[in-house]
Amino acid sequence: MDWLSDREASQRLRQFDVTTAVMVDTEFVRERTYYPELALVQVGAAQHVFLLDAPALGLDPAMVAFLRNPSLKVMHSASEDLQAFQHALGTLPNRLFDTQMAAALCGMDAGLSFQKLVLHFTGVTLEKGETRSDWLQRPLSEAQLKYAADDVRYLQAPFEALQAKLRELGREHWHAEDCQRLLDGAADNSTDTQPHLAVKAAQNLIPAAQARLRQLLLWRDQIAERDNRPKNWILDAPLAVQLCETPPEDAAEFRRRLDTYPKSPRRHRDTLWHVLSRPLTAEDQDIPLARALEQDEKQTLKRLQTAVAEQAKRLGIEETALCSRRHLETLILEKRWSATLNGWRRQHLATPFGAILPKSADY
């Protein structure tokens, strides 16, 4: 295990064989920021582990080139690691093999933890004690260094077994689709223009209140991204819903209500009041509305869930690995297939769903 924090890191990164798979993991801190702060990059190759001091190396061209080179980067549950790479380095792996996704397509638990994956394939029990460590502190403790190294040291065996199993099942292209979708999502920096739809309590608000909630959340997300602070530090969703459901009559009442709220924002109060009290335009109110399923739609949901269960059983995978309830609700409410359901999933679901969904709808 080598700790690399200087020019030697650049030299080592350029020496990797681009024709072989490389094990990769990261450690990051996100408790106080909007973006994950990259603290450590672990690389495992040829039975050796390298720990790269990300803050010391900064935007190292060799690190960027390493991620972009043709070698297959093997990672477990890579979504947040990819976000950390995108924010810190402005780039992502050229090719990805996510072992958590692979395990799900091979019939194992969807969302399988790394510890359970390693135990299954190697019989080794890994410690979880350093998960919430301060990875930005220097020097790292011996326990942290071992934990970080183990994350790539024990990834090789599961990778090789899962790669062989996917090939045996003829599902390599399924996995490639899912990994590419993960990479595309991490590269997409576009802002969610309808954040109110993700707030379940918005379903209980009248249309004007939903439009107001959308304005508050758009403002909150913009400030959180600009200042690199967690969204809920700017304005948490329950308070936003409360303010839109029963708006304060004036600025004085607004301040009193904030003063009594346990997670009240300390900053940006004047701007928040301005956004809340600004008259809504016709354009502001021309938005999709959050709503619960109607009774007939609930029946459709149950039938779709039954179809998913039957197809998942036939394929030998968990239902959530094939299609989640959230994706079914999107299909019913928005009459469209979500991006996650396109590709191999749609090929297996289109026919049974076609017998259930209304023929008049344009799905």
Task: Spell out the key features of this protein.
DNA polymerase, domain 1; 363 residues; 6-stranded mixed beta sheet
Concise account of the structure shown:
This protein is α/β, with parallel strands linked by helices.
Report on this model:
This protein has 363 residues and is α/β, with parallel strands linked by helices. It has 19 helices and six strands. The chain has a six-stranded mixed beta sheet with strand order 1-4-3-2-5-6, sandwiched between helices. Helix 4 links the parallel strand 5 (72-75) and strand 6. Helix 5 (99-105) packs parallel to helix 8 and helix 16 (295-315) crosses helix 19. The radius of gyration is 24 Å and the shape is globular.
What portion of residues is helical?
40-55%
Based on the coordinates given, report the CATH architecture of the largest domain.
2-Layer Sandwich
Instruction: Determine the N-to-C terminus distance.
Output: 53 Å
| CATH topology group of the largest domain | Nucleotidyltransferase, domain 5
* Element pattern in H and E: EHEEEHHEHEHHHHHHHHHHHHHHH
Strand content: 5-15%
Instruction: Please state how the strands of the largest beta sheet are arranged side by side.
Output: 1-4-3-2-5-6
Helix-strand category: alpha/beta
With helices defined by DSSP (H or I, 4 residues minimum), what is the helix count?
19
Count the beta strands. Answer: 6
CATH superfamily of the largest domain: Ribonuclease H-like superfamily/Ribonuclease H
CATH class of the largest domain reads Alpha Beta
Topology overview:
Blueprint: E1 2-4, H1 7-14, E2 22-29, E3 37-45, E4 48-53, H2 54-57, H3 61-68, E5 72-75, H4 79-89, E6 95-98, H5 99-105, H6 114-122, H7 142-153, H8 156-169, H9 172-187, H10 207-227, H11 231-234, H12 237-245, H13 251-260, H14 269-277, H15 282-285, H16 295-315, H17 319-322, H18 325-334, H19 344-354
Parallel strand pairs: 1-4, 2-5, 5-6
Antiparallel strand pairs: 2-3, 3-4
Helix pairs in contact: 1-3, 4-9, 5-8, 10-12, 16-18, 16-19
